[in-house]
């Protein structure tokens, strides 16, 4: 069930009864999803579902695991609730040469990585053995059905602006929106995409697309471009500026860093 939670991008809790006045329940487990669904294991008391559901939701909101002690129907229970937040989902559309280092870096950074392309010779596990999922189907069909949440990060690396337009038409037209949409391309390609989209979507919606994609670090090789792109995605994910950490500290160099010591 925890694997199911990961692949469906749902937060979940694993509840284990560690102590109880009813010894037969000790060691039994259940998985609770963020929507309240419960999947009890063997021996887990079903009458605990309602009381534990609220406790799990509270801990999911805090992102913290902890032990809880309570009484239910005259029976004392001590449970440990392990919180398993769903990983952020990185979707890379277009399995070309830039996709490979981006996918590797995404996996290293703990994202659940999906690579999507409509060409079997590109979208296969031989080229992407380490990613969580490789999908070979049209971009339009995929983006019509894939779940979009505040933990979804979408990167368009397609082989032509026609595929960018089709993907964005589907994504921007959905009620739920991802945390990030980035699109690679030259200024001419970007202009062509926006020219086709501006009749359907307001400027405010188009301005949410990160394009040209990545932070300005002078990236040229596919590997450098991957670093630039993932740095921008982390910037958005973590709500940070993306500026050099040493920016303010370097100003203190002429003072011998004495001001830094005062802080």
Automatic annotation (TrEMBL):
Signal peptide: none annotated. It comes from the Bacteria. Coiled coil: none annotated. Residues 90-233 form the XdhC Rossmann domain. Pfam families: XdhC_C (PF13478). InterPro entries: MoCofactor_Util/Proc, XdhC_Rossmann_dom. This is XdhC Rossmann domain-containing protein. It comes from Neobacillus notoginsengisoli.
């Amino acid at each position: 069930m925890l694997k199911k939670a990961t692949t469906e991008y749902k937060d979940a809790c694993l509840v284990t009864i560690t102590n109880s006045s009813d010894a037969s329940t000790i060691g039994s487990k259940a998985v609770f999803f963020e929507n309240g669904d419960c999947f009890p294991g063997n021996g887990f008391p079903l009458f605990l579902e309602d009381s534990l559901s609220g406790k799990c939701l509270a801990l999911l909101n805090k992102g913290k695991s902890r032990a809880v002690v309570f009484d239910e129907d005259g029976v004392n229970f001590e449970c440990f609730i392990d919180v398993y937040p769903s990983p952020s989902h990185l979707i890379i559309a277009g399995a070309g040469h830039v996709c490979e280092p981006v996918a590797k870096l995404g996996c290293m950074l703990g994202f659940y990585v999906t690579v999507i392309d409509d060409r079997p010779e590109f979208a296969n596990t031989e080229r992407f053995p380490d990613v969580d999922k490789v999908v070979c189907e049209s971009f339009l069909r995929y983006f019509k059905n894939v779940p979009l949440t505040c933990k979804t990060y979408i990167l368009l690396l397609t082989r032509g602006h026609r595929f960018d337009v089709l993907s964005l038409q589907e994504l921007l037209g959905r009620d739920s929106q991802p945390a990030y949409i980035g699109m690679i391309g030259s200024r001419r390609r970007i202009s062509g995409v926006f020219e086709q989209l501006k009749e359907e979507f307001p400027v405010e919606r188009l301005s949410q697309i990160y394009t040209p994609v990545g932070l300005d670090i002078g990236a040229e090789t596919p590997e450098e471009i991957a670093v630039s792109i993932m740095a921008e995605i982390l910037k958005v994910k973590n709500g940070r500026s993306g500026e050099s950490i040493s920016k303010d500290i370097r100003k203190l160099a002429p003072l011998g860093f004495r001001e830094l010591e005062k802080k």
